[in-house]
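2024-03-11 09:14:02 INFO receiving multi-entity request
2024-03-11 09:14:02 INFO entity count = two
2024-03-11 09:14:03 INFO echoing inputs for audit
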Amino acid sequence: MVARFLSVFMLALIGFTGASAQSNVPILSGGAGFFSATQGGATFFQPVVAPVLAVPLGEKWLIESRADLRGFISRENGTTGPYQGRFFGTLEYLQLDYNANSHLTITAGRYLTPFGIFNERLSAIWINKFQDAPIISAIGTAAGYSDGFMLRGALISNRRYAVNYTAYFSTLSTITKFESERTTGGRVGVFVPGTRLEVGTSYQRKLQNQRMNSFGTDVSWAPYHLPLEIKGEWAHSLSGHGYWIQGAYRLSQLGGGNSAIARLEPVFRMQQFFRSQHIAGDSLPSTNMRRPEFGLNYYLPHEIRLNASYGRQFISHSTDVNVWEFGITYRFLFPLWPGESK
Amino acid sequence: MKHRIFLLVALICLCAVSVVAVAQTSTKRSPNNSKPTPTRTAPGSQTEGEKRFQANCGRCHNPPEDISPREARAVVRHMRVRAMLSAEDEKLILEFFAP
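2024-03-11 09:21:47 INFO inference complete, emitting structure
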């Protein structure tokens, strides 16, 4: 059923796009990667392809979509036995955007739940500095994806500061590959372009089963005079609360922009989660957890990135474990068909 | 333990290959063979579109190495929604990528 729907959708899309202006050339972008991780002695491998489709329609419309096609290869019994593989395909977003005016974009369809900054902005495999999502990323995001509509844009935007916002309503869906929860919420952020500092706050109200509120605060800072990025989030829900903070420093000031050393980026992330009460299916650790991590990213030409990281995971009432991760990602971008240059 | 050693050896090999690849690319690359490749420089001699790009897009991810003018409209429209850019930001960044 879903496959049929997607086929019809794609055909309609191609027809509509072909009839629109030639300059609106659709693009296929995204990333591909191969990751390996060893956690507590168990090693697993994940080949991933995450294509992004963006189809501009006229001056105001855009259809965009991202999928995550992932294999999971691990030993049968965790640390022993033959390797076996499973495949997972996730439609992360498939949305229609209408730029109503300079301050408002109306979105309908399946979208990334806008809570904090990680889920919407940093979760793409070619952007995320580490392989995995922060522990608290499940707070306020309802599994990461929502089906419904959303209003978003820049309420105020000038040279000194910008105030951006999102507000959404998501419906309950049990359709395979389109699962979502009935929620509502939003985020407001204040961004200062002169310093590239943004502070935001998020809210979500779950409107099904155990109704609960989630709150969050996020910060992002990338000064111009240093190749440094600092990002972090704090989030709270009935399940518990926690934070992550991450710093990345690209060594581009050493040896010139294209030297071997300038392509290296040490990264550090500290994260902690404090469990308040057990709530079934909240995708959070069952007890308190903290995890400092150190990583090295290496940016090769042609959009290839290598990454390696080590973390120590401390879990209450359980054995602490080492987490080793290695990976390679490739980012691609190309037009789906020829068009005018402008 | 064997897996960890294997992963370590694999990483060292990858790093060695990377360094060789970087060295070869650095020697082959001519200075004028690329499209606008925004760098993290302080505002000053940049165009307004480049400034807006640096301020809004460059703080979350590295810019793609190469964006052709015919890809630019879709890329920038996508970024307008993702980064909640204003219409003016979209116009200026598009002019930067597809002058």
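2024-03-11 09:21:48 INFO post-check: Chain B is about 60% helix and 0% strand.
2024-03-11 09:21:48 INFO post-check: Chain B touches chain A through 54 residues (CB under 8 Å).
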